[in-house]
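input
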Amino acid sequence: MGDLKVGNGSGPNICGDCTAPDAEWASLNRGILLCKDCSFIHRSLGPQYSRVKFLKDAGWKLSLRYMVMTLAAGPGNHVWEHLLLNPNKSSDGNVKKPSPSDALEVKRKFIHLKHFLHQFVLRPNSDPFDVRNQELHSTVRTGALDTTLRLLASGADPNFFHPEKGTTPIHVAARNGQAHQVELLFLHGAHMDAADYLGQTPVEHALAAGHKDLAQRIMELRYFLTDQLSYFVCNENPDHSTSKHILIPAVRVTNSKQEEALKNLPATVLEQLAADLYDEVDRRQLEKYVSATIKPASDFTKFSIAFLPVNPNYSSVRNQTRQKFARLSNDELCALITLVLVECKRRHCNGARDIELDKDIFLHGDKHLSSSMKLAGETSVTEDDDYPLYDSVASDEDLILAEQQTILAQQRATFEETALSSSIAKPISSCEITEHSSIASSGAKISEMETKIQELHDDNQNLKQEINVLKNMVVNAIRETVELKTDVHGRSSYSLNGSLSNGHAVTGSLTSPAVYPNGRFKSPRPSSMCESGSLRYDDAIVPIRTCTTEASLGKFHPDLGKSELIQTTTKKIVELIKVLIEQANASDLPSITRTSEKIYLETHEMATALLLKDDECTPEMRHSLENVLLQVLRMKCEVPLLRDSTDGNGKITSQVFLQKVKRLCFDVGAGMKQLVSTVLNPGT
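output
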C-alpha cells in the first residue's frame, strides 16, 4: 500500500507522543501516529486503551485511513494534550513531553498519564453528560472529527439515544453520509446494529439517503469480529453483499463435546470469547510486523508482547484465559476459532443444526492458510515466493485429493477424540498425513481446549449465582422493610421467638419487645432508635439496619407525593455520590464506606416511604425500585472489599480503585434515573 503520510503526503509521519519522525504505527481510537517505542508502550497498555495498527498493513480501509490521518495531522493530539498545550489550565506544570532520544521508561510514564489516566484531557465541570451527548448527536452530521473526538474523550456516550429524535449518533452519521464519523464512533464502542425509534438500523439509514458504499462499510463493521476471525483461518473475507456473513473452512475440527459446550454458552459469553480470540489474533499479527521491522533481530524480545495485557474491567478468570491463548500454537488457535465460528453461524442461522461449509474455501483458500498462520515465526512482511499472487484453478488431481480427504474427515469424525486441527494450517495439496500421530496429538489439544471452555462455562455460572443471590437479597430486603418497620404507635412485626415473620433468623443484640394483649409488640426503647443485627440468608450473614417508621418518615413530609419524594432523595444521593468520588480520589476508604452506608440508608428509607404508599406504587415502579436497591446494596457490599481485590499482578492501583468506585456510582445513578423516569412518565 505504500507509506501513509499526514496531510498531503509530503512530510514525515510524526509520533504523537514523542515527536519522533518516520512513525510506522497508528493508534486508531486515539487518532495519532506512533514510533517503535511508543507503539510498544501502547500495545502493553492493552487494546481496551489503544488499538494499534501497522501503517504498512494491507488491511487498511480508505475511510479508516482518512479518519486516522486527519486526526493525526494535529486535532487528535490537541484533544489528548489539551491541558499540556495550555499551561494556564493545567495543574501539572512540571510534566513535559518526551523527546525521541528519551529513555523508554520516560516515555512510558508520559503515555501512562496521557492515555491511561487521561490527565491532559479537558473535562468540562459545568456541562452535564446529557449536554455533551446531545452535542455529539448533532456534531456527527458534520465532518468535524476533532469535535467528535473531544466529546468522546470527555465522556460522551457514543450510543446516546436522543429522547426527542429517537436516534443515536451512528444513525445521524449514516444518514448524512459521514463515513469517517462512522469509523470513529465504531472505534469508541458505537453499536452498528442499533435500532432507532422506528426499528431502522444504520444500514437502512445510509441506504435511504443513497449512501450505498457507506451502507456496505457499516455492514462490514457490524460483522467486524467474525470477519477478522474468518480471515485468520480462511485468509479471505466474507462477501456480505451476497449475505455470506461468516466463512468456515470445509476441513475443520469436529468434536461433539466442545460443540455442545459452546451451544450451551449464553450469547454474551460467546461474544466475549470471540472478542478475546480476536484480541489474541490481533496481538499475533502485530508481533509479526514487529519481528519484521526490529533491527537487529536480537531486540525483538525487548519490544515483544508475549501475551495479552490484563484488562482491569474483566474478571481474573477471563484475564487468565485470555493470557493462556498465547500458549496455543497457530493450529490449535485455528481449531478453537473454527469451533466458535461454527457456533456463531449456527446462531446466525436461527439455530440450524447443519451448517453449510464453504467448499470454495476448502479448495482455494487453504493453500494460502499456512502463510497466514505463521504469524509468530515469520521474519518478513513480504509474501512467500512459493505461492502465486493469483488464485489458481484446481486441477483434476486436486479435486480427487480433496474428495479423498473429505471422506477421511468424515471417518475421523466418528471418533470422539479425533480432530483435524493439524489439517487446517496445511495446504490442501499436501499428502503428508500421518494418521496415528495426528490422532494422538489432536486428543491432547482437544482436552486442553475443553478445559478452557469449561473454565468459561464455570465462570459464567458463578456470575449467574451471584446475580441471583443479590436479586433475592433485594426482594427479601423489601419484604422485611415492610414487616420490620413499626408505625408511630410502636407496633412491630417481630414474632415471639425473636425471628422474622418470614422464617429468616435474626442474630445480634436485638432486645425482645413487650407484648400487647392483642398479640402485637411494644418497643422497650424510644421510637427514634434503630435496631441493628444480621440476617442469615442461604448461609450468608447480611447486616441489616431497621429504623422505626417514625424515624424514617420524619425526613419525609406525610403529604409528599411519590414524585416529590423520589426527586428529593435523588438530589441527596447525587450529592453523596459527588462526595464519594472525591473521597475515592483521596483513597479515603473509611469515609467511602461511611458515605456508601449513607446512600444505602437514604435509598432504604425512600423505598420504605414509597411502599407504605402502596396504592401509588405500580408494578413498573416496584421493578425500578428493586433495581435501585440492588445497585445500592451492591455498592455497600463491594466498596469495603475493593482495597483487598487484585488485578492479577498484585494489589490494584489507586486509579483502578477510583474507576471501580465510579462504576458503582454510575450504576446507582442509572438506576435512580430509571426510577425517576418511571414515576414521571408512567407507561412509557
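quick obs: Residues 25-116 form a domain with the Annexin V; domain 1 fold (CATH 1.10.220.150).
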